[in-house]
């Protein structure tokens, strides 16, 4: 299990475990998550043999009352085959519940992520090249996929890599040598072409006792009401594993001491101890008790990001290198406060003091992020994002997806029935037992290049603005020193 835990970009274990272990467990989790949405798909066993028998997928439960397709472990235990009793066509759309609305803005990055293949399309050969680092191949036929939106997706075949860091470097695919391999993963960066996809934690994170996202969101919403912002500890707070990345070790220097007061409180999370004590100290809804929360990457992006942003305390976001699928829609000074990565302590101290001096503005930043997370990142939109990303991807395919000879059919039973503990609990909790009767939100067209440039320039300008304020502040402080 340790191998997998480390994946968490660091909230958990160190990355000392060797790749084999890590990869295996990691990916299994991925299944878990993909399974949730995806439903009758096959795994290319030639890449993956053996994994499925160990762990599996789960599906996400909706708050709908109907349980049309519950988990059937009795049948599974007898036959060990996926039953054919799964929804393959859409329900009629309920006009009262039909959302018919434009998707949140961050969905427009789907077009940017797939832009490299827009002219050429995606050939079988390109997909095969993505196999170099992929952990599994997923084939979806006849729309037997999303239980949430059965029958809506075109046939497709994709490669998924569950490791943390992107591997498809843009510099290797400059024109005219284009045609990069399309590879899905949880995060990417400005130098890579990897396609970002929601991570498993939306279906729960068993090792740390963090429930599926739908429920976590409700808990945090309740937690936010408990202590008013003014009554929270007027300092910046972070809890996590500092050993996964040098930047985190560097952050540790900013903790308050008798000698230095950086307005910052940092705690090392010992998940081993926590798991033995029943996770008493790691309840997410109890973590919105400080006025400011720090986000810092681990080995790559960190899953902690959405939990931190969901508190209505402003997030002090240490300049990240990596992005996941939703952060690109967020803006400095509006949704979070940017913190320099090369002078963290001074930057944090200034941010906290500024916020305490401008409490209305600070609160507005906290509120903006928390409503972005509560609304634009609600679970239904996570499914919509997966739907649109896969749908747009499938449109680019130049070949007919087919089931590889050694593939294994996946279904929720294969994933869940042999599970125990939190694994099983969260799978059942997040299981989609009935298709939705709404349609996916409407995907907006790609940004036109000037609009995208404006958006990015604006982000850059806000960050520079904060850095300028910071410089002025520290110049003043230093000039007062004897
Ligand atoms: C199916 O088998 C697993 C063990 O493989 C067991 O834990 C579970 O209770 C069984 N479920 C049913 C409904 O028989
Ligand atoms: C959704 O909105 C579009 C354009 O605004 C409209 O043409 C369409 O009829 C609407 N569909 C439903 C189901 O309301
Ligand atoms: C940071 O300081 C607080 C308060 O003194 C202390 O409880 C905590 O253990 C310190 N954290 C680290 C990582 O040293
Ligand atoms: C906060 O207010 C105090 C008192 O007015 C002032 O001395 C300090 O420079 C201010 N700090 C920031 C960061 O705005």
TrEMBL record:
The record's InterPro entries line, in alphabetical order, gives: CAP10, O-Glucosyltr/Glycosyltrsf_90
Q: Could you tell me the keywords of this UniProt record?
A: Membrane, Transmembrane, Transmembrane helix
UniProt KW Amino-acid biosynthesis keyword: no
Which SMART domains does this one have? CAP10 (SM00672)
Residue span(s) of domain Glycosyl transferase CAP10 = 152-400
For this protein, the record's Pfam families field holds: Glyco_transf_90 (PF05686)
- For this protein, the parts annotated as crossing the membrane are 21-43
Spell out the protein name for this chain. Answer: Glycosyl transferase CAP10 domain-containing protein
